[in-house]
Design brief:
With about 325 residues, the protein is α/β, with parallel strands linked by helices. It has helices at about 20-30, 40-45, 55-60, 65-70, 75-90, 100-105, 110-130, 145-155, 180-190, 205-210, 230-235, 245-250, 265-270, 280-285, 285-295, 300-315, 320-330, and strands at about 10-15, 95-100, 135-140, 165-170, 195-200, 220, 240-245, 275. It has one domain (about 10-330): Metal-dependent hydrolases (TIM Barrel, Alpha-Beta Barrel). The protein is globular and about 50 Å long.
């Protein structure tokens, strides 16, 4: 289903939700972090989703051991590097990796700036080693509240020239976007693009707020947009992209099953919707699975899947020149 003449792109992947099981075991042993198992098969059900669970926050609980082993900056650097390596092995041409410094720092009380610096170093090392284009998106984790959000934002701003965009993620229901308007404006003033998690665990009003008050360039998940015809029209007309995550949305019960996912509806209505992985280490999938298994299960035709692939290039946080260079690179490898 993947069109080999187009770049393969993942626009929505949390690097702190994509930690290898082997790495968790090794870091746990190195730092004396108690784990529920000492082998991959025993650890897997504690880290990966094996059955759909109700609610986004239940999904987030699976991060416990992924971030729990980030005991020092070398560990943060390692998982960032391994994320780039994993993306390269998947055949991805361009990826936007996002991360929350607060989320990664909290278990071992690391300095936020140190976490950001370590992630940047790991990604840079990965880019130097593997032939893949990577941009970073910094996250304000709304779950910690607006005050902590300022601390997280300040840490990201220390490295503003090495970060491409700002995201607002976490507990959407209890910490709505209106609490972070000034934070996001500060990020935009720094020259960053804006993508907002909205309409995943809340209704269309959350997406409207992201568009009208946070001036989002893109929406992460955006599932509940399907309930509002005017919103559908607005997203299409304003070319606001949606970063869809099929398997993640099924596993968190945001939708009951793949066929209930609105991605096909979005594409049919001219929205620049895309296919992404979200937290592949937790979901137990990769981008090819989403294209080849999840998308057909969601009712997408081959043409719609390729349209989603084209949309990814169109809404990527790249300049027009960078997009052209990426396309040319893909063309050169076609026999």
């Amino acid at each position: 289903m993947i069109d080999p003449t187009l770049p393969l792109i993942d626009l929505h992947r949390h690097l702190d939700g994509n930690v290898r099981l082997k790495t968790i075991l090794e870091l746990g042993k190195k730092h004396g972090v108690p784990l529920p198992a000492d082998d991959i098969s025993g650890l897997k059900p504690h880290v990966q989703i094996t059955n759909p669970r109700p609610g986004v926050m239940a999904f987030i609980e699976k991060f416990k051991f992924m971030i729990g082993v980030l005991a020092d900056y070398d560990a943060c650097r390692r998982i960032a590097y391994e994320n780039v390596e994993d993306a390269s092995r998947e055949g991805i041409d361009y990826i936007e990796l996002r991360f929350s410094p607060m989320f990664m720092a909290e278990p071992h009380d690391l300095a936020l700036e140190g976490v950001v610096e370590a992630v940047l170093e790991g990604v840079h090392q990965g880019r130097d080693t593997f032939e893949i284009r990577v941009n970073l998106i910094g996250i304000i984790s709304r779950t910690y509240g607006p005050d902590q959000g300022w601390q997280e934002l300040e840490a990201l701003l220390e490295f503003r020239d090495q970060i491409t965009a700002l995201d607002l993620a976490g507990d959407e229901k209890n910490y709505p976007g209106r609490m972070f308007v000034d934070h996001i404006q500060e990020g935009r003033s720094a020259g960053w693009q804006i993508t907002i998690h909205a309409g995943e665990d809340a209704g269309p009003d959350s997406i409207w707020q992201a568009i009208e008050e946070l001036n989002a360039n893109r929406i992460g998940h955006g599932v509940s947009a399907a309930k509002d015809p005017l919103l559908i029209t607005t997203l299409a007309n304003q070319k606001i992209g949606i970063e869809s995550n099929l398997t993640s949305n099924v596993q968190t019960r945001v939708v009951e099953d793949y066929q209930d996912h609105p991605l096909r509806f979005f594409l049919e209505n001219g929205i620049l919707a895309t296919i992404n992985t979200d937290d592949p280490g937790i979901s137990g999938i990769d981008l090819r699975y989403e294209y080849e298994q999840a998308a057909p299960a969601a009712g997408l035709s081959a043409e719609q899947i390729q349209q989603a692939q084209r949309n990814s290039l169109e809404i990527a946080f790249l300049s027009d020149e960078e997009k052209q260079n990426l396309s040319r690179k893909v063309e050169k490898r076609i026999p």
